[in-house]
Amino acid sequence: MVFWQVADHIWGLIQPFLHASTQDIATIGVDGHSWMFPVAFGIFEKENTKNWVWFMQQLKLCIGDPEGLAIHTDACKGLENAITPVYPSCEHRECMMHLMLNFKKKFKGDILDNMWPLAWTYETEKHESLMAEIEAISPEAIAYLKKQHNCLWTRSKFSSITKVEYVSNNLAEVFNNWIRDKKQLAIVELADKYREMAMQMRAKRRKVADGLQGTILPSVVKELNQKSKGLRYGEVRATPTIAEISGNGWRHIVDLGKKECSCRRWQIGGKPCTLALHFIFSKGEKVDQYVDDCFSVAKFKAAYEPILMPIRG
């Protein structure tokens, strides 16, 4: 079992998974640039609950049990049952792509049209409305989801602490592509190659960090500035920091002081939604102060500050 040194403020979500061609396992996080952040890897002889519990116990020794931790799993055998014994209070998320693969084996037709919108919506009311539409078509589908997929798979149920809005385990695929040509190596060589690749990655990102200026990551500021262009919403201010923002038949409440919008996207993702962006820029303010601290330059630099030391052959 090997753990890379992890900054305690880099991410709120980790995605443990197993490589299909070998019994090597890895846990991946995400940094402020939405780049994968390798956290740990290990190797066991058989995929079952007992071994997954062991892996999660070792993970806990490394990262502890931070507030707002979300663990995002796919269809790994035994993994789902290993989360609760080790992390009973974490937010256990389930990969929507794997859920849909299973769901489509049992249910067909128009009912499928509501499933991805269910996962993507941030609003509790919209989630309930879509669930009601599914239940009207097939009560059996709702019963199936509650029984077979009782982990979190919709943004409307995500915690506002984590600030990661992923609904699928795409980080696992990124990691698999990263080490695709190395997975058939012998165990000792495989572990050493993982270590070397992690060292190289951290060194490159430390170099990126050294060149960063400002408070919030420039890529995040650029993204939000781009999204703010051409916004045309109605606006009625209750106070200098609270307003109703409306358009296309809907209306939401934006509170700049609390960094909240009633659409909930700002709270879940940590970046102002387009409604909030309209309000912020209509006031002539910069967006930096309204972005969550997890996207700050300081946090990014701190994440890659710890060094993986070289070892002799």
Provide structural commentary.
The chain is an alpha+beta fold and 313 residues long. The protein has 2 domains: 206 residues, no CATH class; 81 residues, no CATH class. The chain is built from 12 helices and 10 strands. The strands form 2 sheets. Strands 1-4-3-2-5-6 form a 6-stranded mixed beta sheet, with helices on both faces. The protein has a 4-stranded antiparallel beta sheet with strand order 7-8-9-10. α1 packs across α2, α5 crosses α6 and α9 packs across α11. It is flat, with a radius of gyration of 21 Å.
Shape: flat
Largest sheet: 6 strands, mixed
End-to-end distance = 18 Å
Cα-atom radius of gyration: 21 Å
In order across it, which strands form the biggest sheet? 1-4-3-2-5-6
Q: Tell me what portion of residues adopts beta-strand conformation.
A: 15-25%
Structural class: alpha+beta
Work out the helicity level. Answer: 40-55%
DSSP helical segment count: 12
